[in-house]
Design goal:
about 400 residues, 15 helices
């Protein structure tokens, strides 16, 4: 009798890239990590890092996602980890938008593909690429379960009072307009890891999770369930981000159309690609912004202050939503690495039990850790996110259940 397969390949297919990880779920071990980028361009690039050796890089022509996944399969095969391995249990796919329908990881079939396709109008940049990755993987391994893990799923526990916008109900329902939220795999993983860091069960802990990267979102998690989140119908709403505006008076759009003569597409580009930090100061790298702040650059200082002001507003709002907060957890590139952001975000919130210890906050580390003073009423934590592990865990759990 052949052994039960325990490996999961995680694919995150973007419009011109594929991120991947191969994991063995027996011990949650990473067997390989890689990235294919600039798909469809004249010179594409693949970087592959097996657990057993040094990274390998390759440049050349990768015209489409089919060629990209075949290149990934070839690199894995060099390490004896090919896609034809009987040890591969499933392929788990990150899908950005699952709408209201998909509340948990789902085995992909024709009906699932059709629903993901129907959601393209609310995720035009992401869902088409996710679909391409799934279909390509199906063609390469039609015998394997393909599992879709949705960014929006963790947020489907929000009550209607948080998920609904205050617009005409019939119009909202007809066009699927509601708050969906994103970064769900990160918020799920980090909220659970924060509870573990505190030595408590997730169902006993209330956490405000701050996922701060180039894209940024906040969530209020009560007892392991999301009750509010900052991103909305799309990833544009909420916090100030690297290139996205976040919250804004919707009438600005009408004003730009009527007075500025801008088209809907031009405004879309403005708010998604030329706003946020890059729109405020010309940089969307927090390290460079902090360097400029320290050098006395007033434009960078204003951008940083606006970023922190919005972040602090969400911490206060979600404190009110939860009623009791056990921890505030910072994660993702900025959240994990930018000590000045963490310090500024909780500064002045001592009355809510929030503070950071200067020495602890300044220490860089790879693992989950507390940066609040000993005995603090509310823990402030740095918890590295691991979305690929979360996708693999959910994928393997579903495969085991189906068996």
């Amino acid at each position: 009798m052949s052994p039960t397969p325990t490996r999961v390949l995680v694919l995150n297919s973007g419009s011109s890239s594929v991120k991947y990880q191969l994991l063995d779920m027996r011990g949650s071990d990473r067997l390989a990590v890689g990235l294919v980028e600039r798909i469809g361009e004249e010179t594409s690039r693949l970087k592959h890092t097996p657990a057993s050796g040094e990274s390998r890089e390759w440049s050349g022509s990768i015209p489409d996602h089919d060629a990209a996944l075949k290149a990934v399969a070839a690199e894995l095969a060099k390490d004896g980890l090919g896609l034809d391995s009987p040890e591969l249990a499933a392929i788990g796919h990150r899908v950005v938008h699952g709408g209201k329908h998909f509340t948990e990881p789902t085995v992909v079939d024709d009906a699932v593909l059709a629903e993901i396709e129907r959601l393209i109008p609310v995720a035009p940049l992401h869902n088409p690429a996710n679909l391409t990755g799934i279909r390509t993987a199906q063609a390469l391994r039609p015998d394997l379960p393909q599992i879709a893990v949705f960014d929006t799923a963790f947020h489907t526990t929000m009550p209607e009072s948080a998920a609904r916008y205050a617009i005409d109900v019939e119009t909202a329902d007809a066009h699927r307009i509601r708050r969906y939220g994103f970064h769900g795999t990160s918020h799920a993983y980090v909220s659970r890891e924060t509870a573990r860091l505190l030595g408590r069960a997730p169902e006993d802990v209330n956490v405000i999770v701050l996922h701060l990267g180039n894209g940024a979102s906040a969530s209020a998690v009560r007892g392991g369930r999301c009750v509010d989140t900052s991103m909305g119908l799309t990833p544009l709403e909420g916090l100030v981000m690297g290139t996205r505006s976040g919250d804004m008076d919707p009438a600005v759009i009408f004003h730009l159309m009527r007075v500025g003569g801008m088209s809907a597409d031009e405004i879309d580009t403005l708010l998604n690609k030329r706003s946020g930090l890059i729109g405020l100061c010309g940089d969307n790298d927090m390290r460079e912004i902090r360097r400029r702040v320290d050098a006395g650059d007033e434009r960078a200082r204003l951008a940083f202050d606006i970023y922190i002001h919005r972040l602090k507003k969400y911490i206060g709002a979600y404190y009110a939503v939860l009623g009791r907060v056990d921890a505030v957890a910072f994660t993702a590139g900025v959240g994990e690495n930018a000590a000045p952001v963490r310090e500024a975000a909780v500064s002045g919130l001592e009355g809510l039990g929030l503070a950071v210890d200067g020495e602890l906050n300044a220490v860089r580390g790879d693992g989950a850790r507390l940066v609040s003073p000993a005995g603090a009423r509310v823990a402030v934590a740095v918890v590295p996110t691991d979305e690929e592990m979360e996708i693999a865990t959910q994928t393997y759990a579903l495969v085991e259940k189906e068996r």
